[in-house]
Amino acid sequence: MRRRGRRPGGQDTRTALIEAARAVFGESGFDGATVRAIATRAGVDAAMVNHWFGSKEGLFAQAILKLPFDPHELLVVLRDGPDDEFGQRIVRTFLTRWDGAGGEVFQALVRSVAGHEQAAAVLRGFFQNFFTKVIGGLGSDRVELRTTLCASQLVGMGLVRYVAKFEPMASSEIEPLVTAIAPTVQRYLTGDID
Questions:
Q1: Which stretches hold the DNA-binding feature (predicted)?
Q2: Domain region containing 185
Q3: 170 contacts 160 by C-beta, under 8 angstroms
């Protein structure tokens, strides 16, 4: 016999809230998402958000601000290969990782950037730290400008694929996108930017 009523307040509730938060933040951004909508989607009482995360902000931090990959591990993977193929590895890995996360985390992060400084700081910090290490390791000049150019390419690509869902990019296989976009990223990394 199936039990009725609220879900017990265990780890499965926490996981359900994180999954629901990713979907609701992805659809509505931080400001548009409500604790009630997230709890309803998770099938739990809204009080569970405060119980597990302390607030909507705490849930946002756990569901969205924690990237679905380890940046250090990502650098190790990307450094495995010739420097002149770095752009290919970056674009391929970016798309593979975000596709694997369902695109929802990226979508929620980007939609929340405009109205939530913490989301903007996380996105900015990730790209600045990540590309500063990548470009610094390649010995390229003008690291700050190159970092910003690479970030603009990847954030723009993510915005078009996961948020605005422009076709054919939204449903394209990864390799054609790598072929089209990687040369630009490679130029930003090591080429002439004057």
A1: 34-53
A2: 69-193
A3: yes
